[in-house]
TrEMBL record:
Domain DUF397: 2-54
High-level lineage: Bacteria, Bacillati, Actinomycetota, Actinomycetes, Kitasatosporales
InterPro entries recorded: DUF397
Domain of life, per lineage: Bacteria
Name the UniProt record assigns to this protein: DUF397 domain-containing protein
Length: 63
């Protein structure tokens, strides 16, 4: 599996960031500082999550 680093993380290996990979029609996400912890989702569900974040729908979840 080939992991891709976020373009917002900057150069070098010391920058902690989100990484993505695809496998079998699924998307896998991990933090570079905790590579053993992997979240698996589908493209549709990830798209729904990203749209909700951009719209601010999740801003008040913990309040």
């Amino acid at each position: 599996m080939t992991w891709r680093k976020s373009s917002f993380s900057g150069p070098g290996e010391t920058n902690d960031c989100v990484e993505l990979a695809t496998a079998g029609g699924e998307i896998r996400l991990r933090e570079s500082d905790a590579p053993a912890d992997i979240l698996t989702t589908t493209p549709g569900r990830l798209g729904t999550f990203i749209r909700a974040v951009k719209a601010g729908t999740l801003d008040r979840l913990g309040r």
